[in-house]
């Protein structure tokens, strides 16, 4: 079965042990539980907040890996109730179910098949939280997951969780975690939070600065920043669930990142740890920005490899330029960071959004939450980064004109995306005009400027 773990059971003194390619999963689980101070009869409780594609897959991977140890491990996923599944999606979901014998048999065993027949005929309305219990994420119905425990009451979901996974869009993170904080007022233990969210907020007072999702969570809940980590990497959710080889980095304080990397690692999903939380989170937001442009270029040039490579060179140089403003010694755009950028530009919802805009199959009036895809986080990130980098108080010296300019003036692609997506004063074809501007500098020049000048602005992270 696609999506099942490669596990075998070994009976030892009447107990069942699961081994994962020779690695004793129960020992790994027990080691992590001890680190959290869990007693023998107190299971490790994990909750995933938000049921987008990556959040749902992340929860499903943990359920498949450790769910067999019911006395030691529990995972649940929270999503809002009331989201109806469209008739069109219900029809497609029915086709997916009937194309997979394993899924069909599973639903029949669970007495859950009939409701999908009724929804297909239009005799019943399905809801997103309802189908998620059966393993269907609304944003990726073509990839059935394992059944999940779904909770729609936020207080019930989080009040006793040892680990909270933030699978929300960055635009919703602060609001939801402020509500979560109300339910944690009497907590004795401090939870560990893993954020999967990619995006930023911009604030202009008291000085211009950015707020990343981990900082939003820290501010909203008071959970110490060393207990808030970021997980990112070159991954497409459906492909990871289907056991395509992937890797990721968990970034943050050493106390938690190293044991979490070990706990989360699987044969097909290798997790490394890294201390540079800032660069990885910022890059996580930036790659979504430039992925939209990559989709536009691909659509407008009929998938021209040359045009896409030119775009890649310029957008990565802008990303490097921006990270040097935000971090004193940023992690180099190489390894998993580069791979994450590459896969997002190549295949992801933000690239898809750019393609559909350029082809005229969707329009900007539809907003940045698209049915079947979820939140297109790159749109809000374009506005946030442009607003931040256009502040005159952050001026840098223009290398040719020798006069102070706002940093955004050295980021022509970001400027163009802002005019396409936010002010809407230009069409998608403007992205090609930006690339073909004869006055455009060699991307290497932008990188050298960033690396050779004292660009770092500590205030951009700490107001």
Q: Could you give the topology of this structure?
A:
Layout: E1 7-12, E2 15-20, E3 23-24, H1 25-35, E4 44-49, H2 53-66, E5 73-78, H3 87-99, H4 101-109, H5 113-120, H6 128-133, E6 150-151, H7 154-158, E7 163-166, H8 170-182, E8 192-195, E9 201-203, E10 209-211, H9 213-221, E11 228-232, H10 237-241, E12 246-251, H11 254-264, E13 269-274, H12 277-300, H13 305-326, H14 335-346, H15 349-359, E14 369-370, E15 374-375, H16 377-389, E16 396-397, E17 404-405, H17 412-421, H18 430-435, H19 443-452
Parallel strand pairs: 4-5, 4-7, 5-6, 7-8, 8-11, 12-13
Antiparallel strand pairs: 1-2, 2-3, 9-10, 11-12, 14-15, 16-17
Helix pairs in contact: 1-11, 3-5, 8-9, 12-13, 12-14, 12-15, 12-16, 13-19, 16-17
Structure described in brief:
The protein has 19 helices and 17 strands. The protein is of the alpha/beta class.
Strand residue percentage: 5-15%
Please state the CA-atom Rg, rounded to the nearest Å: 23 Å
Q: Based on helices, strands and strand pairing, what is the structural class?
A: alpha/beta
Report how far the terminal alpha carbons are from each other.
51 Å
Helix run count: 19
Describe this structure in words.
There is one protein chain. The protein is built from 19 helices and 17 strands. It is α/β, with parallel strands linked by helices. The strands form five sheets. Strands 6-5-4-7-8-11-12-13 form an eight-stranded mixed beta sheet, sandwiched between helices. Strands 1-2-3 form a three-stranded antiparallel beta sheet. α8 packs parallel to α9, α13 (305-326) runs parallel beside α19 (443-452) and α16 crosses α17.
């Amino acid at each position: 079965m696609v999506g099942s773990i490669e596990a075998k059971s070994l009976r030892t003194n009447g107990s069942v042990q699961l081994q994962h390619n020779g690695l004793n999963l129960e020992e790994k689980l027990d080691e992590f539980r001890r680190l959290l101070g869990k007693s023998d009869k107190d299971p490790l409780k994990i909750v995933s907040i938000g049921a987008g594609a990556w959040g749902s897959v992340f929860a499903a991977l943990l359920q498949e890996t450790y769910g067999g140890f019911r006395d030691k491990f529990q995972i649940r996923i929270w999503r809002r109730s009331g989201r109806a599944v469209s008739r069109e999606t219900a029809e497609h979901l029915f086709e997916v179910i009937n194309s997979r014998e394993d899924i069909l048999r599973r639903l029949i065993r669970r007495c859950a098949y009939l409701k999908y027949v009724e929804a297909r005929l239009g005799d019943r309305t399905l809801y997103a939280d309802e189908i998620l219990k059966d393993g269907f994420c609304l944003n990726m119905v073509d990839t059935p997951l394992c059944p999940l425990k779904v909770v729609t009451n936020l207080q019930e979901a989080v009040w006793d969780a040892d680990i909270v996974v933030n699978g929300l869009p960055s635009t919703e993170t602060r609001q939801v975690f402020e509500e979560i904080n109300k339910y944690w007022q009497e907590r004795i233990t401090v939870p560990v939070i893993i954020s999967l969210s990619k995006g930023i907020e911009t604030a202009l007072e008291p000085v211009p600065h950015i707020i990343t999702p981990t900082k939003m969570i820290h501010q909203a809940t008071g959970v110490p920043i060393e207990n808030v980590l970021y997980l990112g990497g070159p991954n497409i959710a459906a492909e990871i669930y289907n056991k395509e080889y992937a890797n990721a980095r968990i970034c943050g304080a050493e106390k938690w990142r190293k044991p979490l990397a070990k706990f989360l690692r699987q044969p097909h999903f290798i997790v490394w740890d890294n201390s540079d939380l800032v660069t990885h989170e910022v890059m996580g937001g930036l790659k979504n920005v430039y992925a939209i442009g990559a989709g536009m270029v691909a659509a407008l040039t009929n998938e021209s490899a040359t045009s896409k490579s030119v775009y890649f060179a310029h957008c990565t140089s802008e990303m490097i330029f921006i990270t040097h403003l935000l971090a004193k010694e940023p992690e180099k755009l190489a390894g998993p960071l580069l791979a994450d950028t590459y896969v997002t530009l190549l295949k992801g919802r933000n690239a898809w959004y750019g393609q559909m805009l350029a082809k005229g199959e969707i329009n900007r009036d539809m907003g940045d939450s698209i049915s079947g895809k979820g939140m297109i986080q790159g749109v809000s990130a374009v506005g946030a980064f442009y607003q931040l980098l256009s502040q005159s108080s952050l001026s840098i010296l223009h290398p040719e004109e020798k006069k102070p300019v706002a940093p955004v003036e050295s980021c022509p692609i970001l400027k163009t995306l802002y005019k396409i997506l936010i002010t809407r004063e230009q069409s998608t074809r403007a992205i090609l005009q930006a690339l073909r501007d004869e006055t455009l500098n060699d991307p290497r020049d932008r990188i050298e400027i960033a690396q050779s000048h004292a660009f770092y602005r500590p205030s951009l992270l700490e107001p």
